[in-house]
Amino acid sequence: MAFFPDIEKIPYVGTASANPLSFHYYDAEKKVLGKSMAEHLRFAVCYWHSFAAPGDDVFGDGTWDRPWGNDVAGAQKKLAAAFEFFEKLGVAYFCFHDRDIAPEGATVRETEKNLRLIADEMATAMARSGVALLWGTANLFGHPRYAAGAATNPNPDVFAFAADQVKTALELTHELEGQNYVLWGGREGYDTLLNTDLRRESDQLGRFMEMVAEHKQKIGFEGTLLIEPKPCEPTKHQYDFDAASCFAFLQKYDLEKEFKLNIECNHATLAGHSFHHEVAYAIAHDLFGSIDANRGDPQNGWDTDQFPTNAEEFALVLYEILLAGGFSNGGLNFDAKLRRQSVAREDLFHAHIGGMDTVARAFDHAIALYETQVLANARAERYAGWQSPIGQSIQQRKATLETLSAHVHAGDLAMEPVSGRQEELENLVARAAR
Ligand code: XLS
Ligand code: NI
Ligand code: NI
């Protein structure tokens, strides 16, 4: 029995139509810069917000329509509903945590048995529908055993349990031909420094990540390992705070070649950055992997995980990604959820259609910026002075404080301030929106 019986495959109708259950901007097949929009944008639906979480909050119970129990039979119904949704929406990818797709059992053996059963059905559904796995991950934060962290837990048995869970989830992702494997820090952080050994917890996390990279090599998983920066929530301070602190952490443990970043919009804003900043930083440090698209609420200081609606903001992010050559293994996962009052089944379609149309509009804007090269030219012009002999000598590491001092004393300097042209550039960006 269909879970969304009244909804057909969502068509692309263009802007003239008023049909809300259709795409007005996202035309999957449309070719731009040699690829279809679907190939460029690599949309993914996340299992957890859309099919697993009940819609509860700290004040009240779940509100969403989830007519399946938390047992294996329920997991099978959930799987069928999820694939019906992916296919009707027309996305190429999905993402999951181990616990989203199958319930934890009373023993690890039972948990693995549950996962095995669902994995086999999932493989069949994937083969039949052609919907592929963008990334898999393990839930190392939900169960009470992880209240004090997983890899950073003061108890080594919890570390071991988390290691076993990641081993299974990584192998499962490999088996389902996932394109990436994600590690979000979950509860890797602290609530109080009074009893936290920062050095020890950092080393534990470093060793955990090393083990994941070692196991990836061992099983021959060719996808990308990703970590996902987030500054706080659920802990007061998360160790994977932002792209820059992830980079420092990876370098400390010699892991910067093994991991890339999954950048989430609402995590960037919680860290006091823009999404644009985090993506540009990751690209500039060869760390860019994938994105979790969503938005926060400008007045709320937590991870509200709403669907993106601001195309202009998103355009700059997509522009940076385009400049960097586009996604390789990564993609655009909607790590976003409905509001608690959105209880109609079709709300899930409205939310994703809105998100995909917003991204499609943003992409069109990004292409205009990319094709006209207005920003690229402004950047190139701004640094043109570095082509001079003095600029080259610095870049090629030939200059020293002494040679530069001699250059300054020779007196032939050109240091007149030039305009940063910010307002003009902002206008150019605004005008490029089509
Ligand atoms: C939570 C994270 C989570 C990861 C996957 O804030 O965004 O959903 O993407 O564990
Ligand atoms: Ni996320
Ligand atoms: Ni998040």
CATH H-tier superfamily of the largest domain: Divalent-metal-dependent TIM barrel enzymes
Q: Indicate how many domains the architecture comprises.
A: 2
- The ordered H/E elements are EEHEHHEHHEHEEHEEHEHHEHEHHHHH
User: In terms of quaternary structure, what is this?
Assistant: single chain
The first-to-last residue Cα distance is 42 Å
Keywords:
two-stranded antiparallel ribbon; 434 residues; eight-stranded parallel barrel; binds nickel (II) ion; alpha/beta; 16 helices
Kindly describe this structure.
The protein is an alpha/beta fold and 434 residues long. It folds into two domains: 31-372, Divalent-metal-dependent TIM barrel enzymes (TIM Barrel), CATH 3.20.20.150; 388-431, no CATH class. The chain has helices spanning 37-41, 47-52, 72-89, 98-101, 108-129, 156-175, 198-219, 243-252, 265-270, 275-284, 311-323, 347-372, 374-382, 389-395, 401-410, 422-432, and strands at residues 31-32, 35-36, 43-46, 93-97, 132-137, 180-184, 189-190, 224-228, 237-238, 259-264, 288-293, 332-334. It has an eight-stranded parallel beta barrel, surrounded by four helices. Strands 1-2 form a two-stranded antiparallel ribbon. A two-stranded antiparallel sheet has the order 7-9. Helix 6 runs parallel beside helix 7 (198-219). The model has no long low-confidence stretch (mean pLDDT 97). The structure holds D-xylose and nickel (II) ion (2 copies).
